[in-house]
Structures are given as C-alpha cells and as structure tokens.
Design brief:
Residues 38-421 form the Mannosylglycerate hydrolase MGH1-like glycoside hydrolase domain. The chain is α+β, with helices and mostly antiparallel strands. It contains 16 helices and 13 strands. The protein has helices spanning 10-25, 43-53, 58-69, 96-99, 118-128, 130-136, 138-155, 170-173, 182-185, 212-227, 244-263, 269-286, 324-332, 366-378, 382-398, 419-429, and strands at 41-42, 81-82, 101-104, 107-109, 166-167, 241-242, 287-288, 293-294, 296-298, 303-305, 364-365, 404-405, 412-413. The longest helix is centred in the middle third of the chain and has 20 residues, at 244-263. The structure holds (2R)-2-(alpha-D-glucopyranosyloxy)-3-hydroxypropanoic acid. The site of (2R)-2-(alpha-D-glucopyranosyloxy)-3-hydroxypropanoic acid has 10 residues, from helix 2.
Amino acid sequence: LEGVRPDAADLVGLRRAAARVLLGNWTGSSTVPSRTLYPHQWSWDSAFVALGLRHLSPRRAQRELESLLGAQWDDGRLPHIVFDAATPEGAYFPGPDFWRAGPFPGVRTSGIVQPPVHAFAVWEVFRADPAEAERRGFLARAYPRLAAWHRYLRTRRDLGGHGLAAIVHPWESGMDNSPCWDGPLARVDPVPPSRFRRRDLDHAAPGDRPTDLDYGRYVRLAAHYRDHGYDDASAPHAFAVEDPAFNALLALSELALARIAAAVGADPAPHRRRADEVVAALLDRLWDASSGLFLCRDLRGGGLIREHGVTGLVPLAVPGLPVAADLLRTACGARFGLGRVHMVPSYDLTGPAFDPARYWRGPSWFNIGRLVHLGLLEHGAAERAAALRRSMLRAAARSRFAEYVDPLTGEGHGATGFAWTAATVLDLIA
Ligand code: 9WN
C-alpha cells in the first residue's frame, strides 16, 4: 500500500485491503478493534465498524450492532467492552476479572460506557439494505434498546442537572488521555503501578500510549465505581465531566432515533424534542464564544476546562447547529489546521500539552475525521470535506490502517490493521 494515491484505480486496492482487515478482525458475531491491543468488542468502535461493514455485508453490520445491544444492562447502559469468552483474561487489562460485571450470567462486560453513536449507526446500517433489515426485524428489535440506552444517559447520567450526560471516567469519552482530563484527574489518587499489570505495552510503544500515572488514576476511578456496584446515585464520582462530543453524538443519535421510531410506528416527536434539548444545553453550558469551540465542563468544581480538544469540534456533525460557522473557522484556524495537517488533530496544535504521537494528546484519529467530514458536508463545506477525505484515505493507506497518525507527518502510531480505520475507508470510498 506504500505508494497508494487515493484516486482512481488505487481505491480498488485500498478497498480490498480494508475489507481484509475487517474480515480478519471478525470473531463470528462482532469485530475486535485490533487483534493485538484490543481483543474484545468495544462499544463505539462497533458503531464505526458497522458503518463500514454495511458496504461489505449489511447483514454482518446488523449483527455487529446486535451483539453489542445484546449486552445491554437492565438499567439501559451499553457497556464499553463486551468481553470475548474465548480470549484469556491476561490478553487485555483491565479484563473481566477486574470489572466483575455483566448484564446476566455468561456475558461479561465492563461497567462504564462510551459515546452514544449507536442509534446513528443503526439508522445508517438500516438504510444500506432496508429489505434485509425488515426481514430480520432489525429496527423493531433495536429501537427499545436504543431508547433505553438514551434514557439511561438522560436520567442517571445527568449529574449536573442541566440536560447533559456526564462521563465518570476518561475512558467513557473514548479520548482517554486528552489534556482536557488532566485537571480533573489531578484530584484522583493514583493506584501505584506495582498493583496492576498493563498489557497494552506488550503491543505498543510507551511513547504512543497513556502514562503509568494516567493508568493509576484510570484504575482507581474504575475500581471505585465497581465497588459502588456501578450505581450512579451512590458512587461518589471523583471524576464527572460534561463532554461536548459525547453529548453531540447523543443529539445526533436522538435525531436518528426519531427516524427509527417513525419507521417502527412509534412517535418520533419526543426524540426530536430531546435532540433539541441536548443542543440547547450544549450551547448554554459548553459553548465558548471567545475560542469558537465547545469546551468540557468539570462538574467537581473546576467549571469550564480551558483546554482545546477535538471533542469541541465534533458538534459540527449535528444538523442545524447554530454555531457551525464559528466551529468551521476554528477547525481551519491555528489550533486544528484543517487542510494544512494530516486529518484532524485530537488536540490544539498550539497547546502546551500537544504531543503528535501520544494517543489523544495530538494524533489524528479516523473516527473523529469521519465525524468532522460529516459535519463539513452537513454545513456546506464540500471542498474542505473532499480534502479531508483525501487526507484520510492517504493516511490509512500509508500507515496500513493505523490506529492513529501523527498530524504533522502522517506517520502511523499504535496498532495497525485497526478496525474503525478500515471501516472508515470503506465508508469514504463507497
Ligand atoms: C480503553 C478500542 C478503544 C477505543 C478508545 C481508545 C482505546 C481503550 C484502551 O481503545 O481505549 O477503552 O485500552 O486504551 O482510546 O477510543 O474505543 O479501540
């Protein structure tokens, strides 16, 4: 793939290579993000994977989402990891013995969640082959589960009481070690590294990953939540943050749920109303006019977090967003360099904590690129969207479907053969 130019005939080879990655990561009922680093099913990965899989096999894309929805808890939450029963405990840390969680015997999961992009994915997968979906009862079975998932987020997770869902662990953002979390995490007493064994470093360079100090804090927070039975009312939640991307995806998914509701004969109006409410709360609570970006809000006393992460650009994907023009300007400005760097960096290029290799502290990620691409199309920036698409296809090809790339050089980091990278390529080529 070394010399691939993302045009004409090269796309045929790229598509074939992307399909091979997804076939190789398929377990029989879902897709692992990476055979080495992440050998289980992850929540938001599955949604992005399904968006790509629908171009290979709509039926398989439906199954991907159904296996995640099948691990839903009674309270409505969709766990961020569904553990593969055949994979040994030691393959990933923290594994099922750490979390001690699951919706019912035989299904082991983590106890935290990830961004709610699922209803959006369900609707798009449905549209790929409505007849097959109809035959399998895909929407009718997914709708009540998705509605319960959103209800969980709107009620038990509205820790601030202003209509936004809060995340209670950095892993819940999907952007684990973003500099946005440095402030709130500083209050968390880290578990010493001698008390756990990281497995990620068996497969990835330490300079590409979160630090031991980060991990110590991740472990402390997760163990605390676990020891309170994952009960949001009684858990103390030392970390509680309103995250723009998480809530923007909730709004986007409520809009999709309205369409799903209408298709299954339910009332779409409450979902549309909730989408409007989330957007209004986003604008009210997280919009920062001075930087032209949405910021995160620390619910444990810190107020708005003055770090400029790509999470604040993701609301661009929401149709009708009143501040889209400002966000577009910010995307193209010095902080995110859209059109001048590879894809979209995960953190402010001019920020003090910027690191082009370390995970969510600067590198560009394909799922985020996909959401920004959607937003550019949504808000009439077709040429910028086309340029971003080319940048993503080139980066995926050159990096052999890397997990993330250096925004300054395009060099791949983390795992290769990464599922949502391949899925995004399929989705962009289709
Ligand atoms: C923890 C699987 C997941 C992604 C996240 C990414 C990373 C896990 C880890 O991998 O997180 O959930 O072990 O680092 O940050 O976005 O869903 O690909």
